[in-house]
Design brief:
single chain, alpha/beta, 6-stranded parallel β-sheet, 14 helices, elongated, binds thiamine diphosphate
């Protein structure tokens, strides 16, 4: 395995001193090392992976140097457009080193949402004409790969990718201190909101632990999962899935259980919710200021005013809760109001150590929900 310090030091000694990206569980120790050792001018956690390509391209334009963009392979879709129409040699020919965490690598067990992406990870790079290598777990070989990648980028001005398998990097102590100043746990908040929704209401929950905590809540209550659509992949799109349902089913309330990282990833979706203005739409953002599900790296969630954003784009109302009493009060109040409404719930970081994963398949989940929506 490769030590995160050695890896980053090698990049730096090859002239790569600027990083942007979206955190990934396989790159957890690299992301943690970068957060601990670089300031936020040299390590920018982007809204989405495509944005990170833009930032690294701008960095190159301003400095002539090469930046590194890190991402989970789930974010490959988000980078295809800027790779094809910005950095490609047929357009601006801008070099960037990609560091791609390979979830769902064929032969390695993973969750359903990673299987297809795992299969197409290197095929997409081939199709895009992007040179790559699979990062060796041997430090000496990895050091050589980095210098070859840098030579290639300097010579051609093209993008190069290092694809990272599971267990490539040594652990690095992660400062995932749940204490972000908030008192409510995300799981408690999820349970309080889920317990308050009407019999006919449905929930579209976002990627990561929010869906896992909702799933376990239904098990505990023996309620089945038919009211919930678990957006296990497709990070950042839960609010739009909820919008699609809400517009077609105006007689039931549709709740989106979003994360701050996911909401920020495709923040523009809120403007479309507001424009379509379904009266039955409630957007709940569980805001811990972190990408908690992949290691707790910071988002700008606690630095921005989501309620002001919601009102500015046209939501009918937006409320913030930071404790149980406020939340209970707001849940009661929001039932009397027309949507779209934003409920911003500030929560602690962290989760239960024994938190499980959905045991039903995505297809079962979809079919159960669709039958429920027909009732
Ligand atoms: C396009 C894409 N990029 C990255 C990921 C990896 N990923 C899964 S969950 C997650 C963090 C989600 O953070 P947030 O929405 O704030 O919810 P939290 O985990 O903090 O509850 C990330 C980055 C992904 N699944 N898809």
């Amino acid at each position: 395995m490769i030590g995160p310090k050695l890896f980053i030091d090698t990049l730096r000694s090859n002239g790569i001193c600027f990083f942007a990206g979206v955190p990934d569980s396989l790159l957890k120790s690299i992301c943690a090392y970068l957060s601990d050792n670089l300031d936020d001018k040299h390590n920018i956690i982007a809204a989405n992976e495509g944005g990170a390509i833009g930032i690294a391209a701008g960095y190159h334009l301003a400095t002539g140097r090469i930046g590194c963009v890190y991402l989970q392979n789930s974010g490959e879709g988000n980078i295809i457009n800027p790779l094809a129409s910005l950095t490609d040699k047929a357009v601006y020919n801008i070099p960037i080193l990609l560091l791609i965490g390979w979830r769902g690598q064929p032969g390695v067990h993973d969750e359903p949402q990673h299987i297809k992406q795992g299969i197409v990870t290197t095929a997409l790079l081939d199709t895009m004409g992007i040179a790559y290598s699979i990062l060796s777990k041997n430090e000496t070989v990895a050091i050589r790969q980095i210098s070859q990648a840098v030579d290639f980028m300097k010579e051609t001005n093209e993008v190069y990718a290092l694809v990272v398998e599971k267990d490539t990097f040594d652990a690095y102590p992660i400062d995932n201190n749940p204490n972000n100043g908030m008192v409510l746990s995300r799981e408690d908040a999820i349970q309080m909101v889920a317990a308050s929704i009407g019999e006919k209401d449905v929930i579209v929950s976002t990627t990561g632990m929010i869906s896992r905590e909702l799933f376990e809540y239904r098990i505990k209550r023996e309620e089945g999962h038919k009211r919930d659509f678990l957006t296990v992949g497709s990070m950042g799109h839960a609010s739009q899935i909820a919008l699609g349902i809400a517009l077609e089913q105006p007689n039931r309330r549709v709740w989106c259980f979003d994360g701050d990282g996911a909401a920020i990833m495709h923040l523009g979706g809120m403007a479309i919710v507001a424009k379509e203005a379904p009266r039955n739409y409630i957007h709940v953002i569980f805001n811990n200021g972190a990408h908690d599900s992949v290691g707790g790296q910071p988002t700008v969630g606690l630095d921005i005013d989501f309620c002001a954003i919601a009102i500015a784009v046209g939501y009918k109302a937006a409320f913030k809760a930071t404790n149980r009493t406020d939340l209970l009060h707001l849940l009661g109040k929001s039932k009397e109001l027309d949507g779209p409404i934003l409920l911003l719930i500030c929560v602690r970081k962290g989760s239960r150590k024994d938190l499980g994963r959905p045991t039903t398949t995505p297809i079962q989940n979809k079919e159960d929900l669709m039958s429920f929506l027909k009732e």
